[in-house]
Amino acid sequence: DIQMTQSPSSVSASVGDRVTITCRASQDINIWLAWYQQKPGKVPEPLIYAASTLQSGVSSRFSGSGSGTDFTLTIRGLQPEDFATYYCQQGNSYPLTFGGGTKVEMK
Amino acid sequence: QVQLVESGGGMVQVGKSLTLSCAASGFRFTRYGIHWVRQAPGKGLEWVAMIWYDGSNKYYSDSVKGRFTMSRDNSKNMAHLQMNSLRAEDTAVYFCARGVDTNYGMDVWGQGTTVTVSS
Q: Minimal CB count within 10 Å: which of A13, A105, B32, B64?
């Protein structure tokens, strides 16, 4: 199975900051990586698929990059509604796997 | 509007069975695979199972393989997750989600249904 490792597990940031989250796969997954945002008690919201393609309606503050084993999610100009937990997920092979999550907290 | 609605959750004893359902509306159901993803209390997301758009292929996580079975009824725009031999560690919120292709992730999620397995 492909293991997905996110870092950091949490990050403290302020409104307007740039935040970068890293996701590493235990083997090559090409570009088949998705990112999701989840707020407490809410449903996960899809952000990005195929490593860098924004889902419809997602703010351009969010961007994704990477291929192979190393990926990043960047949030530019952090907004109050961006404080949440972010998960990566590999779509290269079954069983699909999620990273452990990165909580973006208010500093 | 595009929507997935889960049902069937509840409290059940260890070793018993439960069936979850996922009702789809607002889109062409036969074009999409359906996934189940769960989230234990205070934990992260865990992918559970997936069924292809036509039901011809199914995949399961190692933690549920042999105990859980996915099915779908395209005539009713429904997908199901039959859960047998339930364990305490199966306690979670279960989400169904659609995916047009395995590579592209899950782009629509239901609100989730809670399963509690007690001893």
A: A105
Amino acid identity for residue A51 in this structure = A
Across the interface, do B45 and A91 touch by the CB < 8 Å criterion?
A: no
The reply to whether residue B111 touches residue A36, judged by beta carbons under 8 angstroms, is: no
B116 with A64: CB under 8 angstroms? no
Q: State the pLDDT at residue B68.
A: 98
Phi, then psi, of A13 in degrees rounded to 5: -145, 165
CA distances from B72 to B1, B33, B67, B85, B110 (A): 21, 10, 17, 21, 16
Percent of chain B at pLDDT above 70? Answer: 100
- Provide the 8-state DSSP code for A80: G
Q: What is the pLDDT of residues B33-58, one digit of tens each?
A: 999 999 999 999 999 999 999 999 99
Residues 65-104 of A with CB under 8 A from B: 85, 87, 89, 91-92, 94-101
Cα–Cα dist B32/B28, whole Å: 8
Tens digit of pLDDT for each residue in A69-88? Answer: 999 999 999 999 999 999 99
Q: Which residues contact B40 (CB under 8 A, 6 or more apart)?
A: B46, B89, B91, B92
Stretch (H or E) spanning A62? strand A62-67
pLDDT at B114: 98
